[in-house]
Write the structure tokens for this entry.
Amino acid sequence: MKTTDLHHHTASESSAVAEDLPGTKPLTPQLNAMLVGRQDLHPELSIVRVRPDQGPAPPFRPGQFVTVGLLDAPAEHSPPKLALRPYSVTSAPDKREDVELYVNLVREGALTPRLWTLHEGGRLYLKPTVGGTFTLDEVPNGKDLVMVATGTGLEPYISMLRHFRDKDRWRKFVIIHGVRNVADLGYRGELEAAARTDANVFYLPTVTREGWPGLQGRVQDVLFTGLYAQCVGAPLSPEQCHIFLCGNPVMVETVESELVARGFRKHKRREPGNVHKEAYW
């Protein structure tokens, strides 16, 4: 991703008013997709699948996002609104019968409280185009890709792993996932299995608020101590590594600053570097 094109996933969950045609009454926004699957990991974290009514989901590259919408409760004498929110896709781009999304409940949001009441078969809006530049497009083959996430910032890395695994895209693929509680480790089973069966995939989950047998502390405690080299068997070096940062913006900015101090370079459109970032909040 180019850091100049940073895309923010905002917890405020914006609303868009339905457009009116001249001389007509306000239009109800078209709900053009269906919720076809959901796996509730705990009361505030889910994996959902959304299927468009007309054909496959729009083409996308791993790391890009789609925009999902639900009807907001209309005010009196006001046109209906869509509550909209972008989500990075976790499914692989060669499986477009539906899109898989990793979603947390934002209780004060306009969209997710409604999404949490939606059952399979429920209707949604899925924007017919995708966006985002948080991809591997500008990363050379054969590098160590260090994918750092907090919370649902894990999303784009799941799609990348599913699509590029076994395609000689990297030397090492390292996921460092920081969460508060063990129950927040979405995709844990899939990632543990990938790390067991592929010597080039490393899964380093770390938890801050409860004890467990694995790593404890923030993602910085894994990256900037001897733990990284110990777990991966290679140093965190600017010559070999490209670092991707996705999640809490405080984490993103803190880790980026430390990486720059250690000789890494921010990736920009006209100044290629090896630190790529995306902020969720």
Notes: The longest strand covers residues 33-42. The helical segments are 112-115, 155-164, 188-197, 219-223, 227-232, 249-261. Residues 249-261 form the longest helix (13 residues). DSSP finds six helices and 14 strands in the chain.
